Amino acid sequence: MITCLGDMFFPEVGVAMVTLLRRLGVTVEFPPGQTCCGMPLFNSGYHHDAALVAKRTIGLFAGAEHIVVPSGSCAWMVKTEYAGLLKDDPALKAAAESMAKRTYELSQFLVGVLGVTSVESSFRGKVAYHDSCHLLRGLGESRAPRTLLRSVKGCELVELPGSDECCGFGGSFSVRLPEVSSAVLDKKIANAEGTGADCLVACDAGCLMQMGGGLTRRGSRVRALHLAQVLAPETGA
Amino acid sequence: MSDASLRTPFPQRAHAALEDAHLQEALGIATTKFIGLRRESFAGFPEGEALRDRARAIKEGTLLQLDRHLERLADNIERLGGHVHWAATGEEARDIVLRLCRDKGVRMAVKSKSMATEEIELNEALEAAGVKPVETDLGEYIIQLAHEKPSHIIAPAIHKTKGQVADLFSKELGGRFEADPEVLTAVARKELRQKFLEADMGITGANFAVAETGTIVLVTNEGNGRMVTSLPRIHVAVMGMEKVIPTMTDLMVFLAILARSATGQKLSSYTTLVRGPRQPGETEGPEELHLILMDNGRTRQIAGTLREALYCLRCGACLNVCPVYRQIGGHAYGYTYPGPIGILLTAMLKGAASVKDLAHASSLCGACKDVCPVRIDIPRMLVDLRAELQRKGIASWPERVIFRFARRIMTSPGLFRLGARLGRVAQRPFVRSGRLSGLPLFLGQWTRTRDLPPIASRTFSERWPGLRQTKDLDRP
């Protein structure tokens, strides 16, 4: 599952994920017609509209054994909110619950389902990991991405102070209250730069957009990267 | 906060807070300190998690039979010789206090820190009626001198640096005081001593009230609560109805997690248990005890969307961790209760329309829910509140148009693809070294401080057909 921000702004993350999964022997399919998980609608209170999006997405993935998303917030949306949005229709609710069980954020899928704790990859540089809110507090995951990063040859994982603090994205929050959102971001960037890391890694397209946009605007030497890009760096192909 | 300042739109209030260097300094230091203290306290307290669950269950259960517990509380307080008053609204609660002042000839009242009395703006009402209210909690004392409102639920003067407090004391109390917390506390202590002895009435809130024993419980760190409830001849406690708990055993559960959540203490320095007024044969305590049980919008939420907000212990932990609160402080919210829980409490007290903007003053990061001692699902209720604003048509029409349009795109892959293609063309003038900046409309809110990645020359969907064919090549 590749959701809106990943599809349009970070296609290389999707490519890295596909490369990585195939290397691990997974057959990857990409059901066509995917758009967005519906979280922006849900978060802003447009629940009827979000339910329509959920219903459509559930249909697209009806045949999939496992659904893997390189974005913690989208995985959270599917796993915790779809069934509630469709609670008035028993059949749809059951389908939503089924999809929730089959859906995984990438790092959770790798470690929890495939049992992978070490990835054959090489990456040169110091990496700081940012815990995205929905992966950390929504899905309770802080270990899997760190385990995977530590396993990469040449990759030095440094702990980011305040790694569990929000980057200030928050979907429409980032444009409704841009100044507050940016002030929160400034803190995140200062923390990242303080570690001396070359890369700031996260598992969420929203955080990457926010942190990446902030880093380049400030001319920082730190790059924002998705976990998949460290686990399966593009080889120039 | 005055109506005048509420007329300034919330984003501008937030802007002013971000520009206030003193506020930023004070907030940064204090919230970081609170977060660390709370974390350490729970780290060394493995039974804490189970106690939090238990506390939540007690609150849930109590609300289901709130009437029964309140009646039992009232019966027990009256049996001990106290008086119980029922107030449906904040105005009624205020009037009860004013009537007591009038009837008993009260000219000065000392107060222990209480959010319930802030909620009903009691100090202003007392002053208007010719009664002098004196705040005796150090933080409250500071902001009363400064003619301000509390900006944090447990640390009312959190927005002030020690330098500002020293300047304030020097100006208001006459003298020249250095910016040393110990010196300043000693000054306040000296000022307040006399007031405790002179006051006719002591006014408090209540952290809890135990139904089975008729005990009013106050949790403080300065001992002022004890003085307020024992020295003046009349003690009046103003309490939100949801603060009743069934038993003393329940109280132990809450006390074990309240101070840890608030300040990282095992217990606060003083836990004051008040059982009735002075009894025959006793030499201390007030002659009269009045408990005001205030509804003010609470009971209608027992079966409402904001129900969980009634579990709140007012520990302030959610404020300390909230990325928004940490940036803008309490005053920018504009109401008595700031921070994430404050948005919900404001909606409860003043209706959903009053938090039209504030409902969106959260990135929904979930840090508040994580630290809440009774695990209130604040992000979920904020989302529900946004849904209510949308359903009732309170949300602005441009917003509604944008989201309806977004739904159209999200439910139509053709439109989604078209959107990406059009976006690629439209973004061309704004690309600078591979990044977008200076975008128009609401996107400009983004690009003022951040770059935006351009829509990729080939989206993932567009790359998939090629990627699919390389399948076999990729196999190791």
Your description of this structure?
The complex is a heterodimer of chains A (237) and B (476). In chain A, strands 4-3-5-6 form a four-stranded parallel β-sheet, sandwiched between helices. In chain A, strands 1-2 form a two-stranded parallel sheet. With 237 residues, chain A is α/β, with parallel strands linked by helices. In chain A, strand 5 (199-202), helix 12 (205-217) and strand 6 form a beta-alpha-beta unit. Chain A is 53% helix and 12% strand. Chain A has 13 helices and six strands. In chain A, helix 5 runs antiparallel to helix 6 and helix 11 (178-194) crosses helix 12 (205-217). Chain A has helices at 4-8, 11-23, 39-43, 47-60, 72-85, 90-102, 106-113, 133-138, 143-151, 173-176, 178-194, 205-217, 227-231; strands at 67-69, 103-105, 122-129, 153-158, 199-202, 223-226. Chain A folds into two domains: 4-112; 116-231, Rossmann fold (3-Layer(aba) Sandwich), CATH 3.40.50. In chain B, helix 16 (339-350) packs across helix 18 (378-391). Chain B has helices at 3-6, 10-19, 21-43, 48-64, 66-79, 90-104, 115-119, 122-128, 138-145, 162-173, 181-198, 224-230, 248-262, 317-321, 323-328, 339-350, 367-371, 378-391, 397-410, 413-426, 443-447, 460-469, 471-474; strands spanning 83-87, 108-111, 132-135, 201-204, 208-210, 215-220, 234-240, 244-245, 270-274, 288-294, 431-432, 435-436. Chain B has 23 helices and twelve strands. With 476 residues, chain B is an alpha/beta fold. The longest helix of chain B is centred in the N-terminal third of the chain and has 23 residues, at 21-43. In chain B, strand 11 and strand 12 (435-436) form a beta hairpin.
